[in-house]
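FIELD: query
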Amino acid sequence: MDISQLKTLLTVARLGSFAAAARALDQDPSAISRVVATAEARLGVRLFERSTRRLAVTGVGRGYLDRIAPLVEELDLAAEEARSARRAPTGKLRITASVAWGQECLVPLLPEFRSRYPEIELELIFTDSYLDLLAEGIDLAIRLAPAPQGDLVSTHLRCTRYLVCASPDYLARAGHLPSPAALNGHDCLRMPLRGFDGTWRFCSPSGQQETVPVTGKVVMTSPLALRQAARVGLGPTLLADWLVADDLAQGRLVPLFPDWQVSATGFESGAWALYPSRTYMPTRLRVMLDYLSARLGSASHQERARFAQI
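FIELD: result
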Protein backbone atom coordinates (compact mmCIF):
# COMPACT_ATOMS: atom_id res chain seq x y z
CA MET A 1 0.00 0.00 0.00
CA ASP A 2 1.20 3.51 -0.75
CA ILE A 3 1.17 6.36 1.75
CA SER A 4 -2.07 7.86 0.40
CA GLN A 5 -3.90 4.60 1.09
CA LEU A 6 -2.47 4.45 4.61
CA LYS A 7 -3.62 8.04 5.19
CA THR A 8 -7.10 7.03 4.02
CA LEU A 9 -7.24 4.22 6.60
CA LEU A 10 -6.15 6.60 9.36
CA THR A 11 -8.70 9.21 8.30
CA VAL A 12 -11.53 6.66 8.32
CA ALA A 13 -10.53 5.57 11.83
CA ARG A 14 -10.27 9.16 13.08
CA LEU A 15 -13.59 10.37 11.65
CA GLY A 16 -15.57 7.17 12.17
CA SER A 17 -17.25 6.84 8.78
CA PHE A 18 -16.53 6.43 5.08
CA ALA A 19 -18.68 9.48 4.26
CA ALA A 20 -16.81 11.78 6.68
CA ALA A 21 -13.46 10.55 5.39
CA ALA A 22 -14.61 11.10 1.81
CA ARG A 23 -15.54 14.72 2.61
CA ALA A 24 -12.26 15.37 4.38
CA LEU A 25 -10.20 13.86 1.54
CA ASP A 26 -12.41 15.25 -1.25
CA GLN A 27 -13.08 11.78 -2.66
CA ASP A 28 -16.07 9.63 -3.45
CA PRO A 29 -17.22 7.34 -0.59
CA SER A 30 -16.98 4.34 -2.92
CA ALA A 31 -13.27 5.10 -3.41
CA ILE A 32 -12.75 5.12 0.36
CA SER A 33 -14.58 1.80 0.66
CA ARG A 34 -12.37 0.25 -2.04
CA VAL A 35 -9.19 1.34 -0.26
CA VAL A 36 -10.39 -0.25 3.00
CA ALA A 37 -11.45 -3.46 1.26
CA THR A 38 -8.13 -3.72 -0.61
CA ALA A 39 -6.14 -3.18 2.60
CA GLU A 40 -8.12 -5.84 4.44
CA ALA A 41 -7.65 -8.29 1.58
CA ARG A 42 -3.88 -7.73 1.49
CA LEU A 43 -3.51 -8.02 5.25
CA GLY A 44 -5.96 -10.90 5.60
CA VAL A 45 -7.66 -9.26 8.59
CA ARG A 46 -10.70 -7.10 9.20
CA LEU A 47 -9.71 -3.55 10.14
CA PHE A 48 -13.21 -2.14 10.60
CA GLU A 49 -16.54 -3.56 11.73
CA ARG A 50 -19.31 -2.09 9.58
CA SER A 51 -23.05 -1.95 10.15
CA THR A 52 -25.87 0.21 8.82
CA ARG A 53 -25.55 2.46 11.87
CA ARG A 54 -21.88 2.66 12.76
CA LEU A 55 -18.29 1.87 11.92
CA ALA A 56 -15.77 0.78 14.53
CA VAL A 57 -12.10 -0.16 14.44
CA THR A 58 -11.44 -3.81 15.34
CA GLY A 59 -8.85 -4.78 17.94
CA VAL A 60 -6.47 -5.98 15.23
CA GLY A 61 -7.19 -2.84 13.24
CA ARG A 62 -6.40 -0.60 16.19
CA GLY A 63 -3.06 -2.28 16.71
CA TYR A 64 -2.20 -1.93 13.02
CA LEU A 65 -3.26 1.71 12.77
CA ASP A 66 -1.43 2.65 15.95
CA ARG A 67 1.76 1.21 14.45
CA ILE A 68 1.49 2.93 11.07
CA ALA A 69 0.33 6.35 12.32
CA PRO A 70 3.76 7.59 13.51
CA LEU A 71 5.40 6.14 10.39
CA VAL A 72 3.02 8.04 8.11
CA GLU A 73 3.66 11.26 10.07
CA GLU A 74 7.42 10.76 9.77
CA LEU A 75 7.18 10.17 6.03
CA ASP A 76 5.06 13.30 5.61
CA LEU A 77 7.45 15.33 7.75
CA ALA A 78 10.49 14.11 5.82
CA ALA A 79 8.82 14.97 2.51
CA GLU A 80 7.79 18.41 3.75
CA GLU A 81 11.29 19.17 5.03
CA ALA A 82 12.80 18.07 1.73
CA ARG A 83 10.42 20.29 -0.23
CA SER A 84 10.91 23.29 2.04
CA ALA A 85 14.67 23.02 1.72
CA ARG A 86 14.50 23.84 -1.97
CA ARG A 87 11.57 26.25 -2.21
CA ALA A 88 9.30 28.63 -0.32
CA PRO A 89 6.31 27.29 1.65
CA THR A 90 3.34 26.42 -0.54
CA GLY A 91 -0.13 24.89 -0.28
CA LYS A 92 -3.47 25.80 1.22
CA LEU A 93 -3.77 26.91 4.83
CA ARG A 94 -7.27 26.82 6.30
CA ILE A 95 -7.74 29.08 9.33
CA THR A 96 -10.83 29.68 11.46
CA ALA A 97 -11.41 32.54 13.91
CA SER A 98 -14.29 34.53 15.34
CA VAL A 99 -15.81 37.13 13.04
CA ALA A 100 -14.71 40.12 15.11
CA TRP A 101 -11.17 38.88 15.81
CA GLY A 102 -10.68 37.84 12.22
CA GLN A 103 -11.79 41.20 10.89
CA GLU A 104 -10.01 43.38 13.44
CA CYS A 105 -6.80 41.45 14.17
CA LEU A 106 -6.09 38.89 11.46
CA VAL A 107 -7.01 40.64 8.21
CA PRO A 108 -4.73 43.68 8.88
CA LEU A 109 -1.78 41.29 9.23
CA LEU A 110 -2.35 39.53 5.92
CA PRO A 111 -0.67 41.98 3.48
CA GLU A 112 2.74 41.53 5.10
CA PHE A 113 2.30 37.76 5.40
CA ARG A 114 1.22 37.50 1.76
CA SER A 115 4.24 39.56 0.74
CA ARG A 116 6.55 37.20 2.62
CA TYR A 117 4.90 33.96 1.51
CA PRO A 118 3.10 34.55 -1.80
CA GLU A 119 2.87 30.82 -2.61
CA ILE A 120 0.70 30.01 0.42
CA GLU A 121 -3.02 29.93 -0.36
CA LEU A 122 -5.17 31.19 2.53
CA GLU A 123 -8.75 30.13 3.24
CA LEU A 124 -10.21 32.07 6.18
CA ILE A 125 -13.37 30.82 7.87
CA PHE A 126 -14.73 33.52 10.18
CA THR A 127 -17.48 32.19 12.42
CA ASP A 128 -18.46 32.53 16.06
CA SER A 129 -19.06 28.76 16.23
CA TYR A 130 -16.28 26.42 17.34
CA LEU A 131 -15.55 24.17 14.37
CA ASP A 132 -14.12 20.65 14.65
CA LEU A 133 -10.65 21.01 13.15
CA LEU A 134 -10.24 17.36 12.22
CA ALA A 135 -13.72 16.87 10.79
CA GLU A 136 -13.59 20.15 8.82
CA GLY A 137 -10.00 19.78 7.61
CA ILE A 138 -8.89 23.02 9.30
CA ASP A 139 -5.20 23.61 9.94
CA LEU A 140 -5.39 26.38 12.54
CA ALA A 141 -8.00 27.84 14.87
CA ILE A 142 -7.71 31.07 16.84
CA ARG A 143 -9.74 30.86 20.05
CA LEU A 144 -10.35 33.61 22.62
CA ALA A 145 -10.52 31.97 26.02
CA PRO A 146 -8.61 30.99 29.14
CA ALA A 147 -6.01 28.27 28.61
CA PRO A 148 -7.74 25.74 26.33
CA GLN A 149 -8.30 22.14 27.32
CA GLY A 150 -8.45 19.06 25.10
CA ASP A 151 -6.35 17.09 22.65
CA LEU A 152 -5.37 19.95 20.35
CA VAL A 153 -1.94 21.56 20.60
CA SER A 154 -2.13 25.19 21.76
CA THR A 155 0.19 28.19 21.45
CA HIS A 156 -0.47 31.42 23.37
CA LEU A 157 -0.50 34.39 20.99
CA ARG A 158 -1.40 37.35 23.19
CA CYS A 159 -3.17 38.39 26.38
CA THR A 160 -6.60 39.98 26.29
CA ARG A 161 -7.86 42.70 28.58
CA TYR A 162 -11.56 43.58 28.77
CA LEU A 163 -12.92 47.04 29.49
CA VAL A 164 -16.31 48.58 30.20
CA CYS A 165 -16.72 51.47 27.75
CA ALA A 166 -19.30 54.09 26.88
CA SER A 167 -19.44 57.07 24.57
CA PRO A 168 -18.85 60.64 25.82
CA ASP A 169 -22.45 61.48 24.82
CA TYR A 170 -23.82 58.71 27.00
CA LEU A 171 -21.73 59.80 29.98
CA ALA A 172 -22.84 63.40 29.50
CA ARG A 173 -26.46 62.23 29.85
CA ALA A 174 -26.01 59.52 32.48
CA GLY A 175 -23.40 61.18 34.67
CA HIS A 176 -20.19 59.89 36.24
CA LEU A 177 -20.00 56.26 37.37
CA PRO A 178 -17.70 56.22 40.43
CA SER A 179 -17.40 52.44 40.74
CA PRO A 180 -18.54 49.22 39.02
CA ALA A 181 -21.46 48.91 41.44
CA ALA A 182 -22.86 52.09 39.84
CA LEU A 183 -23.68 50.07 36.71
CA ASN A 184 -26.79 48.87 38.53
CA GLY A 185 -29.73 50.57 36.87
CA HIS A 186 -27.87 51.51 33.69
CA ASP A 187 -29.07 50.20 30.35
CA CYS A 188 -26.01 48.04 29.56
CA LEU A 189 -25.38 46.56 26.13
CA ARG A 190 -24.99 42.80 26.46
CA MET A 191 -24.21 39.63 24.51
CA PRO A 192 -26.59 36.64 24.77
CA LEU A 193 -23.77 34.21 25.56
CA ARG A 194 -23.51 32.05 28.66
CA GLY A 195 -21.61 33.98 31.32
CA PHE A 196 -21.67 37.23 29.36
CA ASP A 197 -25.15 38.71 29.71
CA GLY A 198 -26.07 38.49 33.40
CA THR A 199 -23.05 39.55 35.45
CA TRP A 200 -19.68 41.20 34.97
CA ARG A 201 -16.79 40.41 37.28
CA PHE A 202 -14.42 43.11 38.55
CA CYS A 203 -11.09 43.07 40.39
CA SER A 204 -9.89 46.28 42.06
CA PRO A 205 -6.26 47.46 42.04
CA SER A 206 -5.97 46.06 45.59
CA GLY A 207 -7.17 42.65 44.46
CA GLN A 208 -10.71 42.81 45.85
CA GLN A 209 -13.19 41.06 43.57
CA GLU A 210 -16.86 41.79 43.13
CA THR A 211 -19.59 40.58 40.81
CA VAL A 212 -21.96 43.18 39.41
CA PRO A 213 -25.34 42.17 37.92
CA VAL A 214 -26.01 44.01 34.67
CA THR A 215 -29.28 44.60 32.88
CA GLY A 216 -30.26 46.26 29.63
CA LYS A 217 -32.90 46.16 26.94
CA VAL A 218 -30.44 45.81 24.03
CA VAL A 219 -28.77 42.43 23.45
CA MET A 220 -26.57 41.73 20.42
CA THR A 221 -24.76 38.63 19.21
CA SER A 222 -21.90 40.54 17.56
CA PRO A 223 -19.06 42.35 19.38
CA LEU A 224 -18.71 44.57 16.30
CA ALA A 225 -22.34 45.60 16.62
CA LEU A 226 -21.94 46.19 20.37
CA ARG A 227 -19.01 48.48 19.67
CA GLN A 228 -21.05 50.49 17.18
CA ALA A 229 -23.98 50.66 19.59
CA ALA A 230 -21.69 51.98 22.32
CA ARG A 231 -20.23 54.54 19.90
CA VAL A 232 -23.67 55.99 19.16
CA GLY A 233 -24.49 56.32 22.86
CA LEU A 234 -26.84 53.40 23.54
CA GLY A 235 -25.09 52.48 26.79
CA PRO A 236 -22.04 50.91 28.47
CA THR A 237 -20.71 47.62 27.14
CA LEU A 238 -17.92 45.12 27.85
CA LEU A 239 -15.42 44.67 25.02
CA ALA A 240 -11.89 43.39 24.45
CA ASP A 241 -8.93 45.75 24.27
CA TRP A 242 -8.08 44.76 20.70
CA LEU A 243 -11.57 45.80 19.63
CA VAL A 244 -11.68 49.25 21.25
CA ALA A 245 -8.04 50.44 21.23
CA ASP A 246 -8.56 52.87 18.35
CA ASP A 247 -11.88 54.12 19.76
CA LEU A 248 -10.24 54.91 23.09
CA ALA A 249 -7.32 56.64 21.41
CA GLN A 250 -9.66 58.77 19.26
CA GLY A 251 -12.05 59.54 22.12
CA ARG A 252 -15.05 57.81 20.55
CA LEU A 253 -15.29 55.62 23.65
CA VAL A 254 -14.24 56.19 27.26
CA PRO A 255 -13.12 53.43 29.68
CA LEU A 256 -15.32 53.66 32.77
CA PHE A 257 -13.08 51.87 35.28
CA PRO A 258 -9.58 51.83 33.78
CA ASP A 259 -7.88 50.77 37.03
CA TRP A 260 -10.06 47.68 37.44
CA GLN A 261 -9.72 44.32 35.75
CA VAL A 262 -13.03 43.19 34.33
CA SER A 263 -14.32 40.03 32.70
CA ALA A 264 -17.56 38.22 32.03
CA THR A 265 -15.98 34.81 32.70
CA GLY A 266 -12.38 34.73 33.98
CA PHE A 267 -9.51 37.21 34.26
CA GLU A 268 -6.92 34.94 32.61
CA SER A 269 -7.95 35.23 28.99
CA GLY A 270 -6.12 35.51 25.71
CA ALA A 271 -5.85 34.53 22.07
CA TRP A 272 -4.69 30.96 21.48
CA ALA A 273 -3.65 29.19 18.30
CA LEU A 274 -4.93 25.59 18.20
CA TYR A 275 -3.77 22.95 15.72
CA PRO A 276 -4.06 19.16 15.52
CA SER A 277 -0.45 17.97 15.86
CA ARG A 278 3.02 19.19 16.78
CA THR A 279 4.70 16.10 15.31
CA TYR A 280 3.69 16.74 11.70
CA MET A 281 3.48 20.45 11.04
CA PRO A 282 3.58 21.67 7.44
CA THR A 283 6.00 24.52 6.84
CA ARG A 284 3.13 26.79 5.81
CA LEU A 285 1.54 26.33 9.25
CA ARG A 286 4.84 26.79 11.07
CA VAL A 287 5.59 30.12 9.35
CA MET A 288 2.05 31.36 10.07
CA LEU A 289 2.38 30.50 13.76
CA ASP A 290 5.77 32.22 13.99
CA TYR A 291 4.40 35.29 12.21
CA LEU A 292 1.28 35.58 14.39
CA SER A 293 3.28 35.06 17.60
CA ALA A 294 5.71 37.83 16.66
CA ARG A 295 3.16 40.35 15.44
CA LEU A 296 0.43 39.78 18.03
CA GLY A 297 2.87 39.59 20.94
CA SER A 298 4.29 42.96 19.90
CA ALA A 299 0.79 44.42 19.47
CA SER A 300 -0.23 43.19 22.92
CA HIS A 301 2.74 44.94 24.57
CA GLN A 302 1.96 48.18 22.73
CA GLU A 303 -1.70 48.14 23.72
CA ARG A 304 -0.89 47.49 27.40
CA ALA A 305 1.41 50.50 27.31
CA ARG A 306 -1.35 52.65 25.77
CA PHE A 307 -3.94 51.56 28.36
CA ALA A 308 -1.49 52.26 31.19
CA GLN A 309 -1.58 55.90 30.15
CA ILE A 310 -5.36 56.19 30.32
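FIELD: remark
The chain has a mean pLDDT of 86.
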